[in-house]
Amino acid sequence: MLLLPNAAILSLKPAQLAGILALDDLLELLADELSFLAKLVKHEQK
Question: Is the pTM of this model over 0.90?
């Protein structure tokens, strides 16, 4: 999860905050998918 200082969060507009949250969700999904692919490759190499 993306962490921002409280002052930075308070100065963001709603659209900017939504964009950051959407990007954070996208990066988390990408990390999950890469983790799954790494496990799959490791399994296939056995």
Answer: no
Please state the rounded mean pLDDT for residues 7-34: 77
What is the residue-wise DSSP string for 2-44? ----HHHHHTS-HHHHHHHHHHHHHHHHHHHHHHHHHHHHHHH
Residue found by looking up tokens 């890469």 in the block: 34
Give kind and range of the element (H or E) at residue 45. Answer: helix 14-45
CA dihedral 28, 32, 34, 40 (to 10 degrees): 180
pLDDT category at 37 given cuts 50, 70, 90 is very high
